[in-house]
Amino acid sequence: MPKDRQLYNILVVEDNPGDFLLIEDFLHEQMQNLAIVQVRDFRSAVDFFKNSKQLPDVVLLDLTLPDNGGEELIDQMMKVAQPVPIIILTGLADIVFSKKSIALGISDYLVKDELNATMLYKSILYALERTKNLAAMRESEKKYSELFNLSPQAMWVYDLETFMFLQVNKAAIERYGYSEEEFLQMTILDIRTKSEQSKVENAIRGKSAGNNVAFSGQFVHKKKSGALVTVEVYSTPILINNRLCRSAIAIDVTEKIEFEHKVTRAIIKTQEEERYEIGGELHDNVCQILAASMMSLEVLKLKIGPETEKHFNATRSYIRMATDEIRNLSHRLAPAFYDESSFEEAIEGMIKNLDLRNRFDLNFMYSKSLNSILFDKELQLNLYRILQEALRNTLKYADAKTLCIRLWPENNELLLQIADDGKGFTLTNIKSGIGLANMKRRAELFGGSFDITSAPGEGASITVRIPVNQKKYK
Question: Is cis: bond before 83, omega within 30 of 0?
């Protein structure tokens, strides 16, 4: 077997000349380029490290020296030689002490009577490779620590089982208002509202965010002051002391979302104003033109003969149908509460126009306690549009017999629920639909939530929750 040609600098701390010659022979047997230095006691080893311009690659340490030995020698040599790996060479075949030595940081524990050239060579190679890997790990940990602590975004590490915070960075302390000591006594659920806590647990323990999977999501966090912020959280698994944890970075997007909502509201407002204008034109102008046409047609009735009466009646019927269609269309474009009608009356009008009572076994419940809550026209209009879209989908796809529409206040929230007993659907197949996305967006414009539950053969249910400021109660 050819010798290793790499240059090795080895310090041998050994007071026994015979043992040193044996070690030297073993080393030369496997290595071609060697620089070996021998010292005979611990003090000389200390002087060597103080005065040497170049650290050795490895230290071969006899466990019994004239001025030191045993565990005390290991402890002190570890401090002196750091970061050079140390291999113990001893005549003591003590398995318990060998384990303890490894635990203290020694690279290997070799018994002289069992030693050979190959064993010593492999032990040196393994020690050097471990030292290199440990150095790389320490450098990686240093970089991670710097990235973690110096990040301008809030970051933390938490335990997957208990949800307890294990580490938090400076940005998290500054942004959330808790001290590091307070954070480490809390769980990640403590910075969430009650309504968000189940969402968080489902996100962490759900299949889509398994222990070994990175995931992201948008959540509402609560600061120590009680202020709520919307954040985008990005989380990845991390192993700490053989315990699976998760690291997370939380980016505050409150201002961004508020700006997006302002833009979306402006767009929706412009669209609704245009709809209202078109609806008014259809109702006030086109319907009037059709009404005038009907009056003119009635004048012609006196001048037609029996042979054309059939065509006359058909024309009159078409004009009535067109008038009804345009009137229904104008009502859908411009809800009644835009004028003097109440929100409840506008929904009743929608129910009537869609002929829901004849199509379904309808249960419509509008809580009278809603009348004690002041919610503006903009919110009413968006709830109206959500209900309109939901009912359009029910009519088109549900094949249901029973339909339930409920509006009521609960715990400072306004709730709208639409449920049917139709054929249902698989949620993953419809999540990307434009209609559902629009309904969800309208709910979120007012800080609300949009939830849908369904399964094949089990009907469907939509629940919209909109927070209502306590000050708006009479």
Answer: yes
